[in-house]
Amino acid sequence: MNLHLTGHHLEVTPALREYLQSKLERVTNHFDHVIDVKMTLSVEKLIHKVEATLHVPGNDLHVACTDENMYSAIDLLADKLDRQVLKHKEKQGDHHKANGALKHQASE
Fold this sequence. Notes:
Layout: E1 2-8, H1 14-30, E2 36-44, E3 47-56, E4 59-67, H2 70-93
Parallel strand pairs: 1-2
Antiparallel strand pairs: 2-3, 3-4
């Protein structure tokens, strides 16, 4: 997984980078096929904003979160990413194979 971090009006410190990587580990535990992650951290007045785009096979997932604290915004972002990745994983695996076709249904 490639991680690209960008800061707007903010310096990305090593502590912030480590915190982001630890939160993204939860996403990669659920889904191994994450190719690329692009994250943008920005500060406008008192609002901290985090945006992430995950490139997975067949789709791009985009999430944005804002909060008064950067670390809590990252926590919210990790939760949203986790939900989206699980939803994508379900859709990818669900191909309606369980008795979906008429020829496989029991005729009465």
